[in-house]
Amino acid sequence: MNTMTLWHISGWGFAALASAAVLVGFSKTAVSGANTVSLAIFAAVLPARASTGVLLPVLIAGDVLAVLTYRRHAHWPTLWRLFPAVAAGVVAGTLFLMWAGDGVVRTSIGAILLLMAGVTLWRRRRPQGAGGPDEPGVGGADGPGAGGPDEPDAAAGRAGRAKARSYGVLGGFTTMVANAGGPVMSMYLLSAGFQKLGFLGTSAFFFLIVNLSKVPFSAGLGLIDGRSLLLDAALAVFVVPGALIGKWAVNRINQRLFEQLVIAATIVGGLQLLLR
Fold first, then answer.
1. When comparing pLDDT for 118 and 202, which is higher?
2. What digits encode the pLDDT tens for the residues 200-246?
3. What is the DSSP letter of 195?
4. Under a CB-based contact definition with an 8 Å cutoff, are residues 197 and 145 in contact?
5. Distance CA 236, CA 111 (A)
6. Which conformational region is residue 100 in: left (phi greater than 0), alpha (psi within -120 to 50 degrees), or beta?
7. Residue 264 in contact with residue 86, Cβ under 8 Å?
8. Are 24 and 31 in contact (CB under 8 A)?
């Protein structure tokens, strides 16, 4: 059966979804947070509730490609600090969805994303010599192998653990209610001082594990079924060229531009959610 007919999607609608799938691949291997635009496209073309179930396997396809690309650069101590807080955020997001309507959810997430971007921009305005542990590493290491120490300063210690808990809860909350945890985690990893490859490797494993854990819940809610998987099969092929473009581009983006693009993508995603 024709997938477009099954979902009553026009040619332009499918083209928009395919473009969003390309952007998912690009965001997973280059500019994390850019897939908030994909979230908005899926919700515009498909019914809002169904769009979350269709988008999840597409995101997982991008996560797999990102892990294969950056698996050597993941920082596991940071991941282990995040996961308990993320689990709490997922529970909070589930409870929130029990009473909040779509408008409240979109407004809340958009406000959170803009707040995180604002905090990060404020920190970047401080003199670099006085930055301390919260200052993102934006030194001269711009090449493909750029990276600070294995343990980013802001990811260790009591303050780092407190930051991981707060961002982890927000990340779990936003990924549960709208597949929009990427920008929150992007802000955390930037503020913790991760360089490009450590940032991408750590976020790749984080989202692969988190998104896979959401599959049984989405299936139980009827958001993932044979019809949605058929559409996913047609869209997954478009994730691959996006990931390849991202892998090519990330080696040509210096650290400062990389951070600016991540923050810009977060702001765009937050505004989209607030203005929809």
1. 202
2. 899 999 999 989 988 887 888 788 888 889 999 999 999 999 999 99
3. -
4. yes
5. 30
6. beta
7. no
8. no
